[in-house]
Amino acid sequence: MATFTQSDDLRGAEFVAADLHGARFVESDLSGVVMRGVDVGKADIDAPWLSNGESFFRVNGIDVIPYVEAELDRRFPGRELRRAGDPDGLREAWAALERTWAATVDRAAAMPVGTVDVSVDGEWSFAQTLRHLVHATDVWLGRAILELEQPFHPIGQMDTATKNDGADTSALTTTEPAYAEVLEVRAGHVATVRDFVAAVTPEQLAEARKNPHAPEYPETVLSCLHVILEEEWEHHRYAVRDLDAISSGQAGQVADAGDAEG
Prior knowledge:
With 262 residues, the chain is mainly alpha-helical. The chain has 7 helices and 6 strands; from the N terminus they run ββααβααααββαβ. It has 2 domains: 75 residues, no CATH class; 164 residues, Four Helix Bundle (Hemerythrin (Met), subunit A), CATH 1.20.120.450. The strands form 3 sheets. Strands 1-2 form a two-stranded antiparallel ribbon. The C terminus is likely disordered. Pfam families: DinB_2, Pentapeptide. It comes from Kribbella pittospori.
């Protein structure tokens, strides 16, 4: 099977009567793609930034973004709070996330031994997802909001795209930590966010900060917290999706956890 990577420039390419049956697109830019008279039966699209900005995603002339967002909010109560703009709203949003994740961690614990280390279709395992959220908290609370010079816990899991951009990984472990350690570190990071939003003021939310990935683009404390909330809800969705696949026996390719992405 042919593989096209970032070095292959397919922008503006035209596919006429092409057979892309079973093709897989990972971390690819499909913005502005136009499809006409196509067969998309059983297509599975995951676009975590679908609702960002003033964009649209049309299927047969209908913008489906509002429907997708409404359904996700229905499936995951509390998700609708992720863009809260004041301290009370942020506290409520974080409390909802804590309850949601606690229930999901309990669910994983009740499943067969080793479930937390299983990767579904090459995605991050449950344990690796929690490790990534540790890293996301370090990036957006520790580095961006608190402006710590070295905020990174060693067990944090960085995504491959960030690694490929030349990010410093020297503070991160290269071995898989025990799941008990992951839970302990994760609990500490959750408490750190809880304590921060418990004391944050409207004035602090408006303070300027640097984007940790692109310092030339300004952020605010509030926008950094919104990134944390988005990370939490998106990765919770992934985790639930994979636990569902594992428990139903319909996971497709299920392998031991490796260097995957969630």
